[in-house]
Amino acid sequence: MSSNRKVMTVAEARRLLPSKIADRLSDDGTELKLGYRVSLEELPALVPVLANLTFLTGLELHANNFGPVGAKALAPSLMNLINLTKLLLDTNDFGDDGAKALAPALMKLTKLTWLELSINEFGPDGAKALAPALANLTNLT
Fold first, then answer.
1. Cα 93 to chain center, whole Å?
2. Residue 58 dihedral angles phi and psi, to the nearest 5°
3. How confident is residue 57, by pLDDT bands cut at 50, 70 and 90?
4. What is the DSSP string of 7-57?
5. What are phi and psi of 104, to 5 degrees?
6. DSSP type of residue 41
7. Separation between Cα atoms, residue 30 and residue 39, nearest integer Å
8. Do 38 and 65 form a contact (C-beta atoms < 8 A)?
9. 58-88: per-residue pLDDT in tens?
10. What is the pLDDT of residue 5?
């Protein structure tokens, strides 16, 4: 984990996030619902704060079409979110390179019970990269 990592309060997170993202953080700070809401250009504002939202149990980033560049940007932050039980990353066109970037982060998210990765254009190389991480997620239902 990064030495810059800092556990922050919900109020701090809201102050640091762009308003359209901050408004999607639940009152108790455990859910962040950003499906259809974040562009690749907005990721740099989200990623540093996301890494410190260790209280999150649910993160929805589906249908943002981030592509492999977005997966590479998100992966380091996802590694810190060890309390996640729900992660929705479907419909982001990550491709094989995105799968390779996300696999180490997914390996650390052992509390996940719900993971959505569909519609990401994973080929055989992406599936091969994800397989060990998915096998490690024994709480998926």
1. 14
2. -135, 130
3. very high
4. ---HHHHHHHS-HHHHTTB-TTSSEEE-TTT--GGGHHHHHHHHTT-TT-S
5. -60, -35
6. G
7. 22
8. no
9. 999 999 999 999 999 999 999 999 999 999 9
10. 52
Spatial separation of the C-alpha atoms in residues 99 and 106, rounded to whole Å: 10
Token reading at 41: 């250009």
- The answer to whether the predicted template modeling score (pTM) of the entire model surpasses 0.85 is yes
Tell me the longest C-alpha to C-alpha distance in the chain. Answer: 43
Which residue type, as a one-letter code, is found at position 17? L
Amino acid found at 71: A
Q: How far apart are CA 67 and CA 22, in angstroms?
A: 23
Residue pair 60/92 in contact by the 8 Å Cβ criterion: no
Measured between alpha carbons, how far is 119 from 110 in angstroms, rounded to an integer?
Answer: 23
Q: Residue 28 carries which side chain, given as an amino acid letter?
A: D
Answer yes or no: are the C-beta atoms of 33 and 24 closer than 8 Å: yes
Beta carbons of 64 and 95 less than 8 angstroms apart: no
Residue 98, both tokens: 């995105």
